[in-house]
Design brief:
two-stranded antiparallel sheet; mainly alpha; 6 strands; Znf_CGNR; 183 residues
């Protein structure tokens, strides 16, 4: 699958599983196996998904996305239903359980519900992103076709592209070809 990890935060990476927003949209989480593969690639090993969890993950993603859109629009008003979805998932977050091995190394114990735990972690990330100073660094890719969300951590705070090697380079090539054609 063509996953992208340019969001800089797990909650933005989840939002970015719905792609090409500016040109009608493309769902990347089409079936439970897609969600399980994305969670695994995101570092949540052992997560299994079914239709119900897929639906819940999409609902969480869409609620986070609408909250991000409200922040980007400068709106203080966020739909209370969206906040409830995000907050309810974040409330399910649990600290990772670790144990000592005989050699005194730390061993992380897998959660009973890896997929649910992953969504809770992602919701918690959204809460800390949207409720903290980083919300002022959320951007939407300037590409006319992309629409991925990312955090701008550049020194100048003027990053335009989700990824320079993808959208930034495409735009530079397009501008170069236009100059050649017009010149």
């Amino acid at each position: 699958m063509d996953w992208v990890w340019d969001g800089g935060r797990s909650s933005l990476d989840l939002i970015n599983t719905y792609r090409d927003r500016k040109t009608g949209g493309r769902e990347m989480l089409r079936e439970p196996a897609d969600l399980a593969a994305w969670l695994d690639a995101a570092g949540y090993a052992g997560a299994r998904a079914d239709e119900a969890l897929l639906r819940q993950a999409r609902d969480l993603r869409d609620a986070i996305s609408r909250c991000v859109d409200a922040v980007l629009a400068g709106s203080a008003g966020v739909d209370p239903d969206d906040l409830e979805v995000v907050n309810a998932w974040a409330a399910r977050r649990r600290a990772p359980v670790v144990r000592l091995a005989p050699d005194l190394s730390l061993v992380r114990v897998a959660p009973l519900d890896p997929a649910g735990g992953a969504l809770a972690d992602i919701a918690y990330d959204a809460v800390t992103l949207l409720g903290g100073d980083d919300r002022h660094h959320i951007r939407v890719c300037a590409s006319p076709t992309c629409g991925l969300r990312f955090t701008d951590r550049s020194n100048a705070g003027k990053r335009q592209w989700c990824s320079m090697r993808r959208c930034g380079n495409r735009e530079k090539v397009r501008l170069h070809r236009t100059r050649l054609k017009d010149g």
